[in-house]
């Protein structure tokens, strides 16, 4: 069973961890598999956007929709905040190169040139989330 729990809810940041309990007879028997962090534009005024950061780190298990679960829960939090504060739900993420296709699944597009972060090439990616009435 997949679950997502907020670990540090506040007005300006969001952190979430996904957990699962796989059947005992599977080889993949970890139960804490991923985390995600998001912040409002107040936290990084220079970019004036929501930010997906401290991105997802999945331990052992991938391709089981944990990444999707985390990104969608963060996007939901962002859309609710954007609706309340009357600001655009524009989000940026600094993606490692192999993860770019993952973010693209959620509508993120490339912005600017690749850059180095702690010795790893990264790409800024941005999405503008629709805010329902
Ligand atoms: C990238 C990562 C977060 C994806 O998480 P995941 O749980 O495997 O992804 P999901 O199972 O939720 O996949 C959601 C969708 O994205 C696709 N996807 C996942 N990883 C992808 C990748 N690297 N490139 C392209 N598409 C990818 C899946 O096929 C799936 O597509 P679908 O919904 O059309 O079937 C995970 O592989 C990971 O943590 N990698 C190592 C750390 C890392 O790179 N973190 C991101 C740092 S910026």
UniProtKB/TrEMBL annotation:
Region spans: Disordered: 1-29
Protein name: N-acetyltransferase domain-containing protein
Record-linked InterPro entries: Acyl_CoA_acyltransferase, GNAT_dom
UniProt biased composition (Low complexity): 1-17
Lineage: Eukaryota, Fungi, Dikarya, Basidiomycota, Agaricomycotina
Organism: Mycena metata
A Pfam family this chain is assigned to: Acetyltransf_10
Residue ranges of domain N-acetyltransferase in the record: 73-128
Top-level division of the source organism's lineage: Eukaryota
